[in-house]
């Protein structure tokens, strides 16, 4: 496969959760590969910072201030794109609570963003790609939490497991249209969502690094490269798969 398979010139990609962390890193890298990137997030200042980073590197970015749980607003944003070649549904939130202390509102909030928000993005992208006849790519964001249990991760892990099932199911349904659907399941990655303070941050990172055969934790760029691979032609024969940039923390069959 030639290096040009990673070239996204004349392609348009929509990225949710683009204001920070993995979403920002993905949006910037996709733009560096030549794509026009539509950046969506509810964090307006962060969203415009991402767009400025892309512009400073000579790329093209459009911003959409929205909450991914608002299906109507997401539909409008996707419809505003001149075309749509790839969707990266990255937006997500973190919540931690023991099973016995998990409240209905905790579960509902996490499922609304981490599952329903991804579902809406997938639905809108699929409808647009089918309408335009685009042999596009949809990339969802799962987590290594789907492969390894952990205290306090019921809401987060359950939502990400649902994303995996969504990814596999949708891949079987839209394959005949030439549309590919894959997920990225990162290991522990340093982002604003995982930031702690002071010694707690150091202890957390040290522990997670010890869990990895590579002896380190992830950076947003590590995950962004996985998103780029799945969004471009280099992965043209890949669908319904879970790509795991996790440092070897989980090695499922």
Describe the structure.
There is one protein chain. The chain is 43% helix and 13% strand. With 253 residues, it is α/β, with parallel strands linked by helices. The chain has one domain (3-243): NAD(P)-binding Rossmann-like Domain (Rossmann fold, 3-Layer(aba) Sandwich). Strands 3-2-1-4-5-6-7 form a seven-stranded parallel β-sheet, with helices on both faces. Helix 1 runs parallel beside helix 2 (44-56). The chain is globular and about 45 Å long. It starts with 11 loop residues before the first strand and ends in a 10-residue tail after the last strand.
Quick recap:
With 253 residues, the protein is an alpha/beta fold.
Map the helices and strands.
Layout: E1 12-16, H1 21-32, E2 36-41, H2 44-56, E3 60-65, H3 71-79, E4 86-89, H4 104-132, E5 137-141, H5 154-174, E6 180-184, H6 198-211, H7 220-231, E7 242-243
Parallel strand pairs: 1-2, 1-4, 2-3, 4-5, 5-6, 6-7
Helix pairs in contact: 1-2, 1-7, 3-4, 4-5
Helix content: 40-55%
The total count of helices amounts to 7
CATH class placement: Alpha Beta
Our measurement of the CA-to-CA distance between the termini, rounded to an integer number of angstroms, reads 26 Å
CATH topology grouping = Rossmann fold
Structural class: alpha/beta
Mean pLDDT: 94
Report the β-strand fraction as a percent range: 5-15%
Cα-based radius of gyration, to the nearest Å:
17 Å
Oligomeric form of this entry? Answer: single chain
């Amino acid at each position: 496969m030639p290096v040009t398979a990673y070239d996204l010139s004349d392609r348009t990609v929509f990225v949710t959760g683009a204001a920070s962390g993995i979403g920002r890193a993905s949006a910037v890298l996709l733009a560096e590969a030549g794509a026009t990137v539509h950046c969506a997030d509810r964090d307006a200042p962060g969203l415009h910072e991402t767009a400025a980073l892309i512009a400073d590197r000579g790329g093209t970015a459009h911003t959409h201030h929205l909450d991914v749980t608002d299906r109507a607003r997401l539909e409008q944003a996707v419809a505003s794109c001149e075309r749509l070649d790839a969707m990266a549904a990255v937006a997500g939130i973190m919540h931690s609570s023991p099973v016995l202390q998990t409240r209905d509102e905790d579960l509902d909030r996490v499922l609304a963003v981490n599952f329903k928000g991804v579902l809406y993005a997938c639905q809108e992208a699929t409808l647009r790609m089918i309408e335009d006849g685009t042999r596009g790519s949809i990339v969802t964001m799962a987590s290594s939490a789907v492969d390894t249990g952990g205290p306090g991760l019921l809401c987060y892990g359950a939502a990400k497991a649902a994303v995996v099932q969504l990814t596999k199911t949708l891949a079987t349904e839209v394959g005949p249209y030439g549309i590919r659907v894959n997920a990225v399941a990162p290991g522990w990655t340093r982002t604003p969502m995982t930031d702690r303070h002071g010694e707690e941050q150091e202890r957390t990172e040290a522990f997670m690094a010890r869990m990895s055969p590579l002896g380190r934790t992830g950076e947003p760029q590590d995950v962004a490269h996985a998103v780029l691979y799945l969004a471009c032609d280099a992965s043209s024969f890949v669908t319904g798969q879970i790509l795991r940039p996790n440092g070897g923390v989980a090695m499922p069959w």
